[in-house]
Design a protein that fits this description.
cell membrane, elongated, membrane, transmembrane, 268 residues, transmembrane helix, Type II secretion system protein GspF domain-containing protein
């Protein structure tokens, strides 16, 4: 249970594309990344380390109960790790969108047309899997706002819908696109900073949840230090097994309740 809880500004400047002139020769393809041995963290995921720890604890306690708990905890830990990775990817994507606004505004002030500016600075993680469609629309006169709105459907890329709105207004009424992008960047950055401040304020609550998850382990350590042998009582007697199951259920309910409170406070 404790393992599952544990797993629970500068503007980017776009580089102008290089033009290949006649007679300069063919363009050499960029060599792909060299193959490397996978890192230890890639091979030994946290969930499998959790299972290995449960196996070692089961051997020391001479009981199969810790092993069963470890096996049941593996999918929970895996799910928590994936949720954390998706949240980190969403935050990185939102930061890329903010940088894209600043880069587009800078290229527009440098004298480029909107389609050219997007083609210059669009190569990045901000557009995600929709990058080919957006760049093709920008280069060949397609429906750029629609392509941007399609790209905004991915997590963390919601700010692209604002770029699409600014693009539609600038094309339809002749308004300055750079000024609209500056205001959009300021709004997105303010929202991003507010979200970071909220996360900092909720860090104390998350630490409290982790502390509560480890309190039963501390109690077991104190009992063992006093000579009470709580592991033998919990794992080798019917009364102890009943208390263990009841305590685990109550702790899981409390942790889920606390995590839900933190989640609602963050996304309210």
């Amino acid at each position: 249970m404790a393992s599952a809880v544990l797993l629970m500004d500068g503007r980017g400047r776009g580089r102008r594309a290089k033009l290949v002139l006649a007679g300069c020769g063919a363009v050499r393809p960029t060599p792909g990344p060299r193959w490397r041995w996978p890192a230890f963290g890639t091979c030994a995921r946290g969930e499998w380390l959790c299972g290995a720890g449960a196996l070692a604890f089961a051997v020391l306690a001479e009981s199969v109960v810790p092993l069963l708990v470890g096996v049941l905890a593996v999918p929970l830990v895996r799910r928590a790790r994936r949720i954390r990775e998706r949240e980190r990817a969403r935050v990185r994507r939102a930061e890329e969108v903010i940088a894209l606004c600043g880069s587009l505004a800078a290229e527009l002030r440098a004298g480029l047309q909107p389609g050219q500016a997007l083609a210059v600075v669009g190569a990045g993680r901000a557009l995600g899997t929709a990058e080919p469609a957006v760049l093709a629309a920008a280069r060949f006169g397609g429906d750029v706002p629609r392509a941007l709105r399609d790209a905004a459907a991915e997590p963390g890329a919601e700010g692209l819908s604002g770029i699409a709105a600014c693009w539609s207004v600038a094309v339809g009424s002749g308004a300055g696109l750079a000024a609209g992008l500056d205001r959009l960047e300021a709004a997105l950055r303010a929202e991003h900073d507010q979200r970071e401040d909220l996360d900092a304020q909720l860090a104390g609550a998350r630490s409290t949840i982790v502390l509560l998850a480890f309190l039963p382990l501390v109690a077991l350590g104190l009992g063992s230090a006093l000579g009470a042998d709580p592991l033998r009582v919990l794992l080798h007697t019917p009364e102890g097994l009943f208390c263990l199951l009841a305590g685990a259920a109550l702790e899981a309910a409390g942790l889920c309740w606390a995590a839900r409170i933190v989640h609602r406070g963050r996304f309210r």
